[in-house]
Structure formats: structure tokens, C-alpha cells
Amino acid sequence: MAQDERSHSGGAKGEKPSTGGESTLTVVLAGSVNLLIAVLKLVAGLITGSAAMLSEAVHSVADTITEVLLLTALKVSRRPADRTHPFGYGKARYFWSLLAAVSIFASGSMFALYEGIATVFGEAEDQTSPVVAYIVLAVAFALESVSWAQALRQVRRDAADQGRTLRAQLRHSDDPTATTVFYEDSAALSGLLLAFAGVGLHHLTGDSVWDGIASIAIGLLLAGVAFLLGRANAALLIGRQAAPDLVYGVRDHLSAAPEVDAVVDLQTMLIGTDSVLVCARVDFDDTLTAGQLERVCVRLAAELRQAHPDVSEVFLEPVPRSDADLRAAVLARYGAQSARRSTVE
After folding, report:
1. Residue ranges of the domains in the chain?
2. Residues 316/280, Cβ–Cβ less than 8 Å
3. What spans are recorded as compositionally biased (Basic and acidic residues) (predicted)?
4. What is d(CA 193, CA 206) in angstroms, rounded to the nearest whole number?
């Protein structure tokens, strides 16, 4: 699209509370807890010879690596926009969070599956000092609960700020740090329970197969969490649209303007945490002069940023709603029913 055919209004968006500080606290707390727990689990695993405990030790090491990657994501994503990245570095948070998901799978899940399969199909092993494993698992559960509570607190606060349920926030959040720590800590608590069951059944029956089964279950659990996080971050990195409530709010705001006859097309994309790009094709009142049209575009862009603080960039393009090619493109993207309901009038 030629530059002179498009009306663009940028600038700084409205002030809003920053969640960067709390995200950093959540990640640092989780990383410190995971590092301590990894050492405890490794010692217990070496003493007891439990495959489940060794799997949990590697699980905690993978979680610690994840926190380092998330801290990198927070730091890089805060860099200001420049000539080579005019929309900023917000998507760097999604890239590093995607690497964190890969880390959980590559190191934690694969090792746990290997240890579990080797234990189940290998020679039976004697269990030594199971009490040590019980103590370490109990301490680890208590420490992990502190990190999980902080992650849950942040996710709930973010959900309240967005007017969403906890489940909706986990699905639509554009901040992968808090949700990654929440899923990771939830998996850690579940993994501890599985390890406890494996060690306990091995202790009661004298059969190390239970220990191996627990390790396999931990590996599958981590693979599932890695898949969920990978899918979510991949969608954000590719370019996911904004949450439906924001999309509908922008559409309704533009449609309500007296100078607007119809919102022909509306596209949004998350370009970072709390940062949304809005591109709208609008059929304006034909009686507007060029100067009036420019002032209307500037005013509408400012109003959108004021009403929706997550909106950071607004591009408004005047178009006739009767254009057949444009209408066909919109219908091809959304389908006849969806396009009629959302953008095309």
C-alpha cells in the first residue's frame, strides 16, 4: 500500500501500570527455588538410586534454565524501538519463551523418559534410604508451592486487570513469563507427587518398576507442558490477533464515530506484551475534505489509545466499502458470516 494512501497515527500510548517488575520477581523467585530444589533432588537421587528422583532433579535443572531464558526475554523485550525495529522488541519475549518450552522438553522430558524406560525394562535395582527421598520431596513441595503461589497471584491479578477469568487469561495472555512459570510450577508440583508415589510403591513392594513408571509419567507430563507452552508462544511469535474483547471494542469505537459510514476491515496483531497494532480500513463520510479526514484519523487514533491502553500503533486507511476486490479479500479471510458480523457491513 502506498504511503500517501494511508493515514497513520503513532506516538506514545497512554500510561498504564507496568507488570515488568512483578514478572521479574516471579521469574527470579522461581529460578532460585528451582536451583535449590535441583541440588536437593540430585543428592537424594544419588543416595536412593531412584529413577524418579533423578528425573525430578533434571526436571528442576530444566526449570532453572527456563527461568534464565525468561529473564533474558524480559530484558531484551524492553529495548526501545529503533530504526531496524520500528515496532520495538516486544516479540523477543515470545522467542525466548519458546526456547524455554524447548528446554523443558529436550532436557527434562527426554531424560525422564529415558530413565523411566531404562528402569522398567532393565535389571531390578535395590532402593536405599527412601526416607531421604521422602524428606527431600516434602521440602521441595513446600518450596515449590511458594513459587507457584506467586505465579498464580500474578496471573490472577493480570486476569482481573483484563476483566477475564483465570482460564481465559491463561489462553489469551500476551505475557508468556507469568503463564510459563505457572504451568512450569504446576507441572513441578504434579511431578513431585508422581515421584513420591513411585518411591513409595517401590518401598512398599520392593519392585523398582514403580519407580520407572513414575519417571515415565513425569516425562509425559513435561512433554505435555512443553507442547502447550510451545504452541502458545509460536502463535504469539507468528502474529496472533488481539483478544476478542479489544477487537470488538476497537470496531465499535470506530463504527460509532459520526464521520464513519462503515468499518470495512479490521486487523490487529500483538507486537509485544501489552502492545497491539491496529490496522483498519474505513469508509468515511464522502463529504469530508482532505484536511478534515486527516484530523479525524488523528483524533480516532488518539481515542483508541485512550480507551484501550494496550493499543500502541494505529493505521487508518480510507476506502470505499463498495470496492469488490477489497470485499472479496475480507470475505476470504473471515468467511461470509464472520465478516458480516465483525467488520463488513
Report:
1. 20-238, 242-342
2. yes
3. 1-16
4. 19
Instruction: Give me the architecture of the 242-342 domain, per CATH.
Output: 2-Layer Sandwich (3.30)
Cell of 330: 475480507
- The pTM (predicted TM-score) of the whole model is 0.73
Let me know: does 257 contact 300? Beta carbons within 8 Å: yes
Flag whether pLDDT at 342 surpasses 50. Answer: no
Burial 262-283 (b: 16+ CB within 10 A, else e): bbbbbbbbbbbbbbbbbbbbbb
Cell 510450577: give the residue.
185
21 has a pLDDT exceeding 90 = no
255: Cα within 13 Å, side-chain hemisphere:
16
The helix (run of H) or strand (run of E) holding residue 221 is helix 209-238
Q: Which three cell numbers stand for residue 53?
A: 528422583
Q: What is the mean pLDDT of residues 2-10?
A: 41
Concatenating the DSSP letter of every residue in 58-110 gives: HHHHHHHHHHHHHHHHHHHHTSPP-SS-TT-STTHHHHHHHHHHHHIIIIIIH
pLDDT at residue 253 greater than cutoff 90: yes
**Closest to 93 measured CA to CA, from 66, 68, 71:** 71
% of the chain at pLDDT higher than 90: 27
Q: Would you state the torsion angle of the CA atoms of residues 23, 29, 32, 37, taken in this order, to the nearest 10 degrees?
A: -120
Q: Which residues pair with 284 in a beta bridge?
A: 260
Mean pLDDT of the chain: 84
Superfamily of segment(s) 20-238: Cation efflux protein transmembrane domain (1.20.1510.10)
